[in-house]
Amino acid sequence: MQEKFISLLYPNEDSQSFHSYRDNLPDISDAVCDELGLTDLFALKSCSLSDFFTEDIDVIRYRQSTLNDILNIPELKSTLSEVHPILDDIQQLRRLDMESSNSGDSYLYSITEIELYVSCIDMLKRGFEPIRDRIKSPAFTTLADFVIELAGSEYYAELNKKLSALASRVHEVKSVTIGVNLDRELRPSYAGVISVNAEQFKSGKVLDKILRLSFKNDAMTCISELSPLGKGQSDNKQEALVAAFHSAIEDVFKSSVKGWRSIVGEYVLDNTDFLLRLLPEIEFVSKAADLTKRLSEHPGCNMVMPTLHPIEDKVFRALEIFNPRVALAIDDEIVTNDFEFDDNARIYVLTGPNRGGKSVITVAVGAAVAFCMLGLPVPAKAADISPVDGIYTHFPEGADDTIDKGRLGEECARLREIFDGATENSLVLLDESLSSTGAYEAAYIASEILTGFAVMRTRGIFSTHLHELAARVPEINEKSRELGGIQIDTLVAGIEEGKRSFKIVRAKPDGKSYARDIADKYGLSFESIMAKANSRKGDAQ
User: Fold this and answer.
1) CA distances (Å), 65 to each of 42, 78, 324, 488, in order?
2) Which of the 8 DSSP states describes residue 360?
3) Which backbone phi and psi does 382 adopt, to 5 degrees?
4) Is 241 contained in some domain?
């Protein structure tokens, strides 16, 4: 039976081949995935999340269809969950086979691999047949039809029949009788197989055998206690026994397994390879479905397939967006926000109090774009998104905000790397960048950086405690206009009645109001201090 192209993530072989080259993928590194919290959220084992990003809208739509099926058909997810560990075992067997230099071991690995392959096909057939008419995605339609056809073929039936007979013969082997010749110094010199037995040897004592006079009728009872292979034996004895065992296994399987493997091996390995190629994809879509379900069930959270727009349109508009990592870290209902890049602002300077939600919304925007480019529902109630050619992050590496020339130099070097990689179709996320220097120096360098990004026409967020930087936005916009760049605007993480609301609003920052609200909250406003001072003065009198 001729194998078909099957992929859960790519619509055709050319697309899969194109995405197999790292240079063709969007520039979203493992480090960026870490900073956006995606690595921990997906917790992939057999692959890297950065391998799956795409800016191809057709590929994204193909994956959206795949995810819709797995989200809407619970039995599909259950079937994949059952098959996944078996494919892991096949992959492990392949590795052991490659590392083994013994042909007897290789025969056993071959038999076990074929058994696992057959169990995979049977499991997929049992899972797909009852739900075939509910499957809509091209990916699962192709996979289901191929598996059902394969499992019903004459060749597959013959394969099962031969495998059953061979496995029965192999599994009946319980022990091997080995003859060992000794030299004049009683050292093992030659060894060979006497018999292959369907029962195991038992421990015994020579006196018992003499008293029972049952040497011929009790060939499976040893004249001494059985001991683990290698225990208390010299290196020479161990080598002789191991060599004899391997020789026995090879003799047992040489005539049947070796010949049989050559006949069906190519067929089975081709089909096993087809399943192994799906292993990373199966893990990815399974983890993605689990994550989507967990997030959609969290209080106040929605997950939605985004409406896609061409990359050159640079669209990002999301209603009730939230940070998925934060959502899963708390039990309470999460605060959501609306966020949009528009013609009046492709870059935002986001200010507000510490722990007011600046970092949370910055990561939320990056995560939404990343989810979209993986072909998944995004953490929002509604979303319109264009893919990007890269996501670049510059997040704080430590909590030290003191003046440190070494750290400032490191920050500037990292920012220069972003400039070297980013384009007008990229997304740049800066969180408390340049916090290692004083406010004046930081605001100056940051204004130069923002002007550069504005002239590059890239999208981005600069989350900062620097209110001086927000004050320079009109100056930056004037310079950007002269150089043909885009506009920058300001966002504010709000405080309501002295409490952090975690709501992000498009407004000009007012650092004094933040300070006044916080001072009121902790009883440090001028009125509170004077009232307390007058009270104490009265008590003293």
Assistant:
1) 20, 18, 22, 37
2) H
3) -155, 150
4) no
Residue 321's H or E segment, with its range, is strand 316-321
Amino acid at 284: F
Q: What percent of the chain has pLDDT above 70?
A: 71
Select from 199, 219, 235 the last residue of a domain. Answer: 235
Judge if 23 and 78 occupy the same domain. yes
Whether 458 and 472 map to the same domain: the answer is yes
Q: How many domains does the chain have?
A: 3
pLDDT for the residue 398: 45
Helix 405-421 vs helix 439-456: angle between axes, to the nearest 10 degrees? 10
Within 8 A by CB and 6+ apart from 490, the residues are 348, 349, 350, 351, 470, 473, 506, 507, 508, 509
Surface-to-core class of residue 385, CB atoms within 10 Å of its CB (0-12 exposed, 13-18 middle, 19+ buried): buried
Taking alpha carbons only, the member of 348, 351, 355, 303 closest to residue 324 is 303
- Inter-residue contact 181 to 191 (CB < 8 Å): yes
288 and 430 housed in the same domain: no
Q: At what angle do helices 57-72 and 138-151 cross, to 10 degrees?
A: 60
Tokens 């400032």 belong to which residue? 408
Condensed to tens digits (0 to 9), the pLDDT of residues 209-236 reads 444 545 455 666 766 666 665 555 666 6
Percent of all residues in the chain with a pLDDT value above 90, rounded to a whole number: 43
Q: Give the gyration radius of the chain's Cα atoms.
A: 34
Give the residue from 179, 200, 193, 168 showing the smallest Cα distance to 104.
193
Which domain, by its residues, includes 46?
13-172+259-296
Residue 298 bridge partners (DSSP): none
Using alpha carbons, select from 340, 370, 354, 382 the residue that is nearest to residue 491. Answer: 340
Compute the distance between CA of residue 152 and CA of residue 160 in angstroms, rounded to an integer. Answer: 11
Which tokens is 142 given? 């192709």
